[in-house]
Amino acid sequence: DFDLNYFWHWSKFTDYVQCVLTFTGVTGYITYLWLDSSLFVETLGFLAVFTEAMLGVPQLYRNYQNRSTEGMSIKMVLMWTSGDTFKTVYFILNQAPFQFSICGLLQVFVDIAILLQVYLYSHYPQKPVSHTAHPASAKAL
Predict the structure, then answer these.
(1) Quick one: which H or E segment has residue 127?
(2) 96 lies in a domain?
(3) CATH code at position 107
(4) pLDDT tens column, 73-121
(5) Which of 53 and 4 is assigned the larger pLDDT?
C-alpha cells in the first residue's frame, strides 16, 4: 500500500479521502504541539507561501518538455502575472514578512518564464511532439 510508484494512483476515492484526513490530522497535531515555537511557525509559514509560489513550475516544466504551450491562453497567463505582481507590490509596500516578498517575487519570475514560453513557442514553433496519454487517464472514473 505504500509503494511510492503508485502513490497518486488511487483505486478508490475513499482511499484518497482517508490519506488527506490522516495527513491533516497528523500535521494538525504536530502543529498544536509546536505552536509555541516561533521557529516552527515561521518555517511552516514559509513552506506555505513557498508552495504557493511554486504552483506554476509544473506547467513551466510541462511546456518545456512538450516544447509547446498549446491550449494556454496568453490572457490567462497575463492575468496570473498581473495578479502576482500586484500581490508582491502590496507585500513590499506594506512591509509584510520577508518570506512573502521573496516568494511573491519568485512567483512573478515563474509567471514571466511561462509568458516567455508562450511567446517563444507560438512565434517559433518546434517540431510537433506526440502527446502520449498517461496510463491512469485511460481509466474510466
Answers:
(1) none
(2) yes
(3) 1.20.1280.290
(4) 888 889 989 999 999 999 999 999 888 999 999 999 999 999 999 888 8
(5) 53
Domain annotation covers residue 60: yes
CA gap 50, 102 in Å, rounded: 9
Quote the domain boundaries for residue 110.
Answer: 37-123
Among residues 138, 73, 77, the alpha carbon closest in space to that of 113 is found at: 77
Half-sphere exposure of 20 (CA within 13 A, CB side): 7
Computed over its alpha carbons, how large is the radius of gyration of the chain? Answer: 19
User: Is residue 48 within 8 Å of residue 54, measured between CB atoms?
Assistant: no
In this prediction, residue 141 carries a pLDDT of 44
Read off the pLDDT of residues 15-43 as tens digits, 9 standing for 90 and up: 889 989 999 999 999 999 999 999 999 89
What is the phi-psi region of residue 12: left when phi exceeds 0, alpha when psi lies from -120 to 50, beta otherwise? Answer: beta
State the pLDDT confidence band at 13, using cuts at 50, 70 and 90: confident
- Domain presence at residue 64: yes
The upper half-sphere exposure of residue 36, i.e. CA atoms within 13 Å in the direction of its Cβ, equals 1
CB atoms within 10 A of CB 67: 16
